[in-house]
């Protein structure tokens, strides 16, 4: 390696060295990717994406819980009192002002109407997984008559909106649609 | 401290081997002729105790893996079958489960020994940081091991802890999905945790080799915290340190044995004998006892800090509580290592110890419990957790940096040998 004091033009050897190095980096990254991505849910897990539920037997004041993507989804037929309580809350009292409804606009506000099923204000469908650290809140409990998470004390109201405790967001509403008047498909 | 090797192979086979792979020389220099400060107290035997516990955990773990099935449908039953059917299965599982707790008891004593005697100070920074890495790996291994029996605490502990990552903005949710391999903790999670739980102990063993290597380059600290100056300050590792280590290992085994044979479930949680149910969260989720102080710190942050919401703030504080240990060599500005010669440090240190225990207690109660039914002190647990969390961080980030400048340490002895002679001089003079 004959080195001189003046910086020389890059040689063919420099070019080959850098090109080989760059290819090596890309190659290592490409080889590493399958070993990282194998940890993600595969297509068979992701395919479990929808369930159909018959809700004809759910009377006012009752709720059923179904599993969707390994998580419990509650479908509650709310009483008139619960709906009225949900509507009476002023939006500025809410910790999370967004509806968190996958069927509505992402910027929709968290009014009771935006949380309940479209055209069926008594039906509330939502993922019953606390937005704090993933525990399952208890039905019909807590000081707002909605849900209470026993793990770290988050309290949700009758629309499933976070009202007190450490949870940052309202309980999320999954994508769903009414197939008939009494049958819904989640996912 | 690594002087000239004194190993001389005596047999023909020994000489033949020595010329080809001098591994016997390495072991001799490491565990026989290695000079140790002559004033080491019993707290210096916990390194040996930890090495023993690592071996116990690996041996019992390999045996358990022969009978355990990492499948969410039968994992719980396979653990019950280990307890009821497998020959000696109850003993091996209790040794492993309580062994994890003993491992943490020993490591906490080992860490607090280092904190008091300034074992993290130059030239032992790398040694200390390797120790922090081992501690992190231990926590990961313990967490994943606790998930394997697939009981209620396993399942919900895994759910809560993997949900920590969702606190991170944008990347949080994809990271959590990647970690658990689905939309919720399930069979995919159990399988990968089993695989990693088997791997981590061997990673720990690897870092332990580096830890011991670094120790043998810089030499052991000692209760006086002063450097070894001559051969008079030291004794050979064997028989002096070896026999002391063995004695304390035996005492530790008695303590360990008492739990295994008389209180095998005292350190566990009864809810973990209920099979995991994704539809029902236990009323009161608590981690294993060795994580409780950090759990208390997590729950103490229930307020937003500027743009950081309470959830992210809690997770950052919890990880920060461990990460701060890695920076300790540069946070403590005092030139004096041993707490024996630092009157103000001593007070702050013992307060830190009591505070750490208190945080552990706070992690075990509900956040709205009233701890002291005394007028003026009848605050909710979360208020005490905030105070305790504040002192935890203040110790590292305020007290230790400032003390080095304002504290006047007591005079240090000239050498370890002088200090020992001075101690025995008054009686021998008469």
Automatic annotation (TrEMBL), chain A:
Annotated ranges, domain Rieske: 86-185
Subunit relationships: The main subunits of complex b-c1 are: cytochrome b, cytochrome c1 and the Rieske protein.
Catalytic activity: a quinol + 2 Fe(III)-[cytochrome c](out) = a quinone + 2 Fe(II)-[cytochrome c](out) + 2 H(+)(out)
Cofactor(s) recorded in Swiss-Prot or TrEMBL: [2Fe-2S] cluster
Gene Ontology molecular functions: 2 iron, 2 sulfur cluster binding; metal ion binding; quinol-cytochrome-c reductase activity
Record text on cofactor binding: Binds 1 [2Fe-2S] cluster per subunit.
UniProt family annotation: Belongs to the Rieske iron-sulfur protein family.
Miscellaneous note of the record: The Rieske protein is a high potential 2Fe-2S protein.
Enzyme Commission number, as recorded: 7.1.1.8
Entries under PANTHER family matching the protein: CYTOCHROME B-C1 COMPLEX SUBUNIT RIESKE, MITOCHONDRIAL
Keyword hit for Oxidoreductase: no
Gene: petA
Function as written in the Swiss-Prot or TrEMBL entry: Component of the ubiquinol-cytochrome c reductase complex (complex III or cytochrome b-c1 complex), which is a respiratory chain that generates an electrochemical potential coupled to ATP synthesis.
Listed transmembrane segments: 15-36
Name of the protein in its database record: Ubiquinol-cytochrome c reductase iron-sulfur subunit
From TrEMBL, chain B:
List of residues binding a ubiquinone: 216
MF-aspect GO terms: metal ion binding; oxidoreductase activity; quinol-cytochrome-c reductase activity
Cofactor note: Binds 2 heme groups non-covalently.
Any one of the GO BP annotations: respiratory electron transport chain
Cited Pfam families: Cytochrom_B_C, Cytochrome_B
All copies of domain Cytochrome b/b6 N-terminal region profile, residue ranges: 13-224
PANTHER family named in the record: CYTOCHROME B
Quaternary structure annotation from Swiss-Prot or TrEMBL: The main subunits of complex b-c1 are: cytochrome b, cytochrome c1 and the Rieske protein.
Protein name, per record: Cytochrome b
Organism: Pleomorphomonas diazotrophica
